[in-house]
Amino acid sequence: MFFILSKIFEFLATPTHLALFIGALGALLSVTRYRRAGCALSGGAIVLLLILGFSPLPALIAVPLEARFPPPPEDAPAPDGIIVLGGSVDENLSGVLGRVTLADAAERLTAPIALRRLYPKARIVFTGGTAALRGSQYTEAGTVQKFWREVGLDQGDILYEDKSRNTFENAVFTRDLVKPQPSERWLLVTSAMHMPRSVGIFRKAGFPVVAYPVDYRTTADFRGFGAPRHASRNFTLAEFAAHEWAGLAAYRLTGKTDALFPAP
Question: Of 144, 206, 213, 122, whose CA–CA distance to 171 is shortest?
Fold first, then answer.
C-alpha cells in the first residue's frame, strides 16, 4: 500500500504537474461565474512555472541534498562490498527493444566499473526490481546484468536482487541477501541527491553503509547560480529535489528512517 500511495502522490505533487493542474483548473473556472478565481489560479500557475524554469530555486533546494554526504577520502580503507541502487535504466524499454536503455542516473552503473579496478576483492551487489505501478515482466536487475556483462564488469561474480520496488525494499532485501557482518565495510552507490534518504533507510534496516555519491546535478554548493540555458533542465532538477524532500518526510513519518535529514 505504501508503494502505491507513494506513486500516486508523486504523480500529483510533482511541481510541474501541480502547476499544470492548477493552470487547467484556472482555465476551466475562467469560463464560469468564478472567472476571477480562475484567472488568479491560471496566473499563479504561470508564475510558478516561470520560477521553476528560470530561477535558482530548484538548485537552492537541491544543493543541501547533494552536499549532505561527501565522497569518501581517497585513502579510505578498501570496502568489503559495494551496493548499487537501481534507478539507472528503463527496464521496460530495454526489454521491449532488446538492448540496454540507460536513464538519467547512468553513473550509478558506470562508477562500479572504476570501483572494481580499485577494489578487485570487494563483492558487488545490484538491487532493483521494477518501479512500475502495475509491475513488469522486466526488471532493472536483469537489464543491468546484461549491461555489465557486455562491458566486462560481470564475470559471474556479481549478485543481483530483483524483487525490490523502492529504496526501503532495496535496503531490506539486500541486507537479507548478503547478511553483512558488523566488521564489514560496504559502499553505497547512488545519486548524490538520493543519498540522504538512502543512508537513513539502510541504517534503520540495520545495515550501516558508507556513502559513495554519484550523478551530481549541481556543484553541491552555492557556486555557479545563474539563469539556466533550458527551462526543462530546471524543471527536472526541481522534480528530483522535491521528490527527495517529500520522500525524506514520508519515510520519517512511517518510521523507515530515524532522522528527517540523515547526516554523516
Answer: 206
The per-type count for the chain, helices as H runs and strands as E runs, is 10, 5
Q: Which three cell numbers stand for residue 190?
A: 547512488
**pLDDT value at residue 65:** 97
Q: What type of residue is 20?
A: L
Residue-wise DSSP of 45-109 = HHHHHHHHHHSSHHHHHHHHHHHSSPPPPTTPPPPSEEEEES-SB-HHHHHHHTS--B-TTTHHH
- Looking at the predicted structure, is the pLDDT value of residue 178 above 80? yes
For residues 23 and 45, the answer to whether their CB atoms sit within 8 Å is: yes
With 80 as the cut, is the pLDDT of residue 229 above it?
A: no
* 72-214: CATH topology: Rossmann fold (3.40.50)
Which residues pair with residue 210 across a beta bridge? 187
Specify which residues 161 forms β-bridges with.
127
Prediction pTM value: 0.91
With cell 568489503, the residue in question is 80
